[in-house]
Amino acid sequence: MNPSNLFLKKTSHISSSFLYFLRTSSGFFIGLFFALLLTLIVGENPVHIFLIIMKSAFGSAYDLGLTLFYTTSLIFTGLSVAIAFRGGLFNIGAEGQLTMSALGMVGFAYLFPEIPRPFSYVAIFLVGSLCGAVWAFIPGYLKAFRDSHEVIVTMMLNFVAAGISSYVIVNVIPNQQSQNPESFIISDSFRTNHFDFINTLFPDSPANLFLLLAIFTAIMLYLFFEKTLLGYELKVSGENPLAAERAGIPVKKMMIIAMVLSGLFASGSGMNEVMGFSGQFKMGFSPEFGFIGIAVALMSNNNPLGIMVSAFLMGALHKGASDLDFETETITRDFSKILQAMIIFGVGFQYYLNKKFFRGENGSH
Amino acid sequence: MEATDFFSISFILSFLISSLRVSVPLIFASQAGLLSERSGIVQIGLEGFMLIGAFSAASFAHYYQSSYVGFGMAFLMGSFFSFLFSLFVIKFKADQIVIGTAFNLLIAGLIPFISKFLFNSTGSTPSLPIEIRLSVIPILLAFLAVILIHLWLYHFRSGYWVQFAGEHPETLLSAGVSVDKVRYICLALCGGVAALGGASLSLFLSSNYSPLMTGGRGFIALSAVILGKWKPIPTLLACLLFGILDALQIRLQGVIIGDFKIPVQWIQILPYLLTIIILAGLFGKSKAPAFLGKK
User: Which residue has the higher pLDDT, A151 or A219?
Assistant: First the structure.
């Protein structure tokens, strides 16, 4: 079925705020509950595990900084998945798009190291955006004009992006000082860290300016959907392409616009890493942000404002799980994947419950 | 290695055999994906099913010191987990792609979780002694699976039900056959057969389970289904083609022709590029079952 049908925005008749809360977030708590319950099997105390996760996510300024760094990337990929959804497309290629964006930026900084400030920032920003957007344009175009299924195409492009980046990073622009598969470090004129006032709030952590850009992008996307004609047309053609076609909305064009914007947002995750934090392309820098973004978008029913909240929750869980390695005997950081998966299952179950008990109202904003 | 070594008879023979061997996991997985997709369920969880198969096969084979037990248990575990999958996509009518993605994530997290508990290691399972490893049987089983699925789909009434479930479910319904039941069965078989693909990775191509050893083969298997136009025999041929590419990629590591070192990544991305080109309709249309992914 058309994925956007699942997430139709409906006017909700809230009888009580508790029911509204249940409708919108029961999936998250169901998933969290069952994931933690699993730890009983290996003889751990779920409450104890939960407390470790909370402490690791919010325990110090540094911990919170890491959580916010993940949050930033997840807001971007969540928005990326959400705008495609709203346009009636399923973009599981945010991972490839953010990879190509990061690769493009590092490659550009390698070819043109001498560009002076502030043009360097403008240039690398544009290159990063362009690479992500082009990588998303391909499936958008193929879907609109060749009727190729965007899920398979984006999935395949993820692997192509991984192959290209691994070739370029290891063989063309490696970091000579390191044994790790990572690129050289780009020149300071492309990096934002020396005037990063967000980072000074969370010393030594990777939290950076791009958090603000992520929040700004989310708010802009909200306004785009609610206040602009293009946003409205995009939603309509996603929800009901036939009706949209009849109303004179160019559906094919809308598909491509949705995908290009989707790739643009995914690029933000690459920038968060390359421009904002490390200044290089480290293989595996993304713990599959593109896929976690699917959970983020689902949890918030593709509402851009809700995405900020769900990205923060998922970011916190991801950071929190990273300390399980040395805080427990039996559970490792891979538990983060179990948490993410169970939450997606939980949200799927939530939609089922809503359909059954609330006649399909998924309580969007 | 010199470039001229590539043209000796012994080289070509051993190359063909290794191509056949590395195709085996793909053949199982792609036939599994075909069953699911022909019944109308989009299957992007093959990677997860393969991982379950690889891990449980290695674990049970180690515990009972028998590869046969390993293969059998892989099938059962794969079917069991695919029941979980079908519960969500059929009963709860959740989005098939979302659940497939979540499923791959779940398995990738669950295996180290269980492995740490059982073997106190998040990495590999203990190695199996050489004498209990299988050498030919998985190849035969893989081809048998293709033949059985081909016969079932095109020569048995219940096989037609599968095709109708994917093409015209309402016709099947009006004939008094439960579409959901057909899909539950196809998905259970899908999980089991894909797990056999994983099992042949850990018991046939190597001697233990190592983390994420499927390395994207679940997705290459899905490409093979598309390339094979959702038909068993052409899908088998696509798997053999990808097997040749895989064997080539292994052989070409470190090979220098003239001054040029062939990058393995170029060959690794070929199956994916080929799939995109096919999907773009440049070599004739590959048509999915009409009702694939719809509810």
Answer: A219
